[in-house]
Amino acid sequence: MPLMTGRQYLESIRNLDLCAHMMGRSVMGASQSPLALPSARAVALTYDLAHAPETRDLLTASSPLTGGAVNRFTHLHRSTDDLVKKVLMQRACGGLTGCCFQRCVGMDAGNAVFAATYACDKARGTGYHGRFLDYWTRVQAEDLTVDGAMTDPKGDRGKRPKDQPDPDQYLRVVGRKPGGIVVRGAKLHQTGMLNAHEILVMPTMSMRQGEEDWAVSFAVPTNAEGLVHIFGRQSSDTRKLELSFDAGNPVYGGQEVMTVFDDVFVPDERVFLNGEVEFSGMLVELFASYHRQSYGGCKTGVGDVLIGAAALAARMNGVENASHVKDKLTEMIHLNETMFACGVACSHLGRPTAAGNYAVDTLLANVTKQNVTRFPFEMARLAIDIAGGLVGTMPSSADLSDDEAGPLIRKYLAAAPGFATEERMKVLRLIENITTGAGAVAYLVESMHGAGPPQAQRIMIARQGGLAEKIERVKKLVGI
Ligand code: SF4
Ligand code: FE
């Protein structure tokens, strides 16, 4: 089956006719809502770029499962070169959309489940890997978008899953029937859920003996019976309804959803972990590392847009040659390239898993994401600094059409020669979008918490940092 185009993808999503709760209403065909459409367009671009001559090499890969070309967003990485290309692809997509394009979580989940099911089968004689291969072959052949779902609500964070007053705070198996299992729980922060065909669920953390019901991985279609999708709000999201440049990013956007699994039946052939607690940690760690690598690509792509917008705003303000402005732009570039360098480095130092796909270097993937929890915030600060206070105080674009206000806005918000006031306002709105508006959900909040909060990376960095070995080196060097 040939790879889908963006238009075919959008049609496939429309045909799913997903229902979601949005702003107090239950909406059929929720992915077609003006609130969600910008995010669908961002995913659609990942399909179109696979056909465009200049990006085809980056956006496609050869798969032994299908024997043909697949979209890289469904690819099981076969080399460190594949891992590097993944980061380059994400930077390209971020730079073209200026937002989260949502399709990475499925790719990262697919690679993690591929490796973990293989390891589980080897150790326990289970039959998950073959099932997963069948499933993923279909994902690749049909060029599907998959939502990789990990984050549980977690209730009382001080208690293990089985000790929670409400055991559904961690998604779990509540029933075993002939031919399948019944699951209950919720997944929060689901990036692009309404734009996905499939959900690939993983445990939210490493489970222990006695927590078998929570050690579960499986896949269901996004329109499976028993799923309830609740659309997440974003700052200034209703500006998308105005269809004006006040939205900041006039074409693209991101999407986050809370999805509840209200006793959903999962047939055996879609179950990839069911009680093997010792492999839940491996699965979580693999996914987290892949996704921490991802941020070294996508956030730098959005960073490219923010740097460009800050530079253009400086030019429009007539201050592009001021030395402090040049220095701030240089600092933004330095921060952005540092995140990118880490993403590329953890890819180059990747290694094959026993299953045959390639995993990233865990320590450097965690360093990548730790930087991502900080640098976009500093870059946002510098962009707002350069752009000026108008980022937060500008009148509505609708006032430009007013007989009285329009000419006054054009006169008093005039830009440097060569630029129209309206052009200046568009650039400032984009900076507003990324730093404090709807785009800041992905650029800032997700940079902090996506793929785990900063502390999760610090735990891994401490664990992988080789402190004992470093002490031994010193002892040897000084003769202790
Ligand atoms: Fe991909 Fe980045 Fe969006 Fe995560 S935040 S899905 S890595 S674009
Ligand atoms: Fe994410």
Question: Which ligands are bound?
Answer: iron/sulfur cluster, fe (iii) ion
Q: Tell me the strand percentage band.
A: 5-15%
Query: Helical element count?
Result: 17
Shape: globular
Average residue-wise pLDDT:
97
CATH superfamily of the domain at 282-471: Butyryl-CoA Dehydrogenase, subunit A, domain 3
CATH class of the domain at 282-471: Mainly Alpha
Radius of gyration: 23 Å
- Determine the N-to-C terminus distance: 66 Å
Query: CATH fold name of the domain at 282-471, please?
Result: Butyryl-CoA Dehydrogenase, subunit A, domain 3
Poorly predicted runs of 5 or more residues: none
Based on the coordinates given, report the CATH architecture of the domain at 282-471: Up-down Bundle
Number of strands: 14
* Most strands sheet: 6 strands, mixed
Structural class: alpha+beta
Instruction: Give the strand order, joined by hyphens, for the main sheet.
Output: 2-1-10-11-7-6
**Percent helix:** 40-55%
Brief summary:
This protein has helices at residues 6-16, 37-48, 56-59, 80-97, 104-124, 128-141, 239-242, 280-316, 323-348, 362-372, 375-387, 390-393, 405-412, 421-435, 440-449, 454-464, 467-478; strands spanning 20-22, 25-27, 60-63, 68-71, 146-149, 172-177, 180-191, 198-201, 216-221, 227-231, 256-267, 271-274, 351-352, 358-359.
Describe this structure in words.
It is a single chain. This protein has 480 residues and is of the alpha+beta class. The protein has a domain at 282-471: Butyryl-CoA Dehydrogenase, subunit A, domain 3, CATH 1.20.140.10. The chain is built from 17 helices and 14 strands. The chain has helices at 6-16, 37-48, 56-59, 80-97, 104-124, 128-141, 239-242, 280-316, 323-348, 362-372, 375-387, 390-393, 405-412, 421-435, 440-449, 454-464, 467-478; strands at residues 20-22, 25-27, 60-63, 68-71, 146-149, 172-177, 180-191, 198-201, 216-221, 227-231, 256-267, 271-274, 351-352, 358-359. Strands 2-1-10-11-7-6 form a six-stranded mixed β-sheet, with no helix packed on it. The protein has a four-stranded mixed β-sheet with strand order 5-8-9-12. Helix 5 packs antiparallel against helix 6 (128-141), helix 8 (280-316) packs across helix 10 and helix 9 packs antiparallel against helix 11. The chain is globular and about 75 Å long. The mean pLDDT is 97. The protein binds iron/sulfur cluster and fe (iii) ion (FE). Iron/sulfur cluster is lined by residues 100-102, 104-105, 191, 294-295, 298, 442, 446, 450.
